[in-house]
Amino acid sequence: MSQNPSIPSETAPGHGHFLDSMQLPSGVTRFWLVRHAIVEAAARMRVYGAMDVELCSESLALQVPYYAALGRRLPSGARWVVSPLKRAQDTARAIFAAGYGTRDLTIEPRFTEQSMGEWHNLPHHELPLRLRQTAHNFWSLSASEQPPGGESMLDVCARVGHALDEQADQNEGRDTVVVSHGGAIRAAISHALNVHPDTALRFSIQNLSLSILERIGGVWRVVTVNELPASLVAD
After folding, report:
1. What dotted CATH number matches 26-232?
2. Where are the domains of the chain?
3. For the segment 175-221, what is each residue's pLDDT rounded down to a tens digit?
4. What is the DSSP code string of 83-136?
5. For the chain, which end, N or C, has fewer CB atoms within 10 Å of the first or last residue's CB respectively?
6. Residues 6+ apart with CB under 8 A from 58
């Protein structure tokens, strides 16, 4: 605990930026990463990667309390950044409509999902026949596998990491909400932890989950991963 009550313990000299209170301190460069909502059933039958597919309309209607819970969890004064894919932008607008209020959206192409190139739109059962490497246990392919005309997860980690560092430099001390994708959020975690993408792919990133990253003194840390809005909805 800080000896001076006027200095929050998280910022007290020599404290190590520990998070002692229930609230995250203000004035920290912080990214709130939200995975988009679930997509329509037909799209889920195929490898959609960086394709533009629609959200599931039935889930959109049923999950309004989850969007409202996310809105209450997210900082009201944050910048909002989305991938160029419609499902990310529609998820952001659903959060706005559920009570958060409308905000401007900045499109950042580097936060898009992994491009599967020529493997886009394949039925899932056909994908293993195309792989040249053993698939990751928790992803459709290994981190170093590059689909023809697409990206490897190593590529995704490089572009997401560059985007995070650049936006952190340009928005020091501010909150930024990023509505993105499962692969891109895992890439962000890989960058923050400085671990190989194959390791970061072991994290589960579910639809509508929240992960929080901070950069303090030029160093990234992870506050939370895959926090689900269902846990925030009152019984």
Report:
1. 3.40.50.1240
2. 26-232
3. 999 999 999 999 999 999 999 999 999 999 999 999 999 999 999 99
4. -SSHHHHHHHHHHIIIII-----EE-GGGSPPP-GGGTT-BGGGGGGT-SSPPP
5. C
6. none
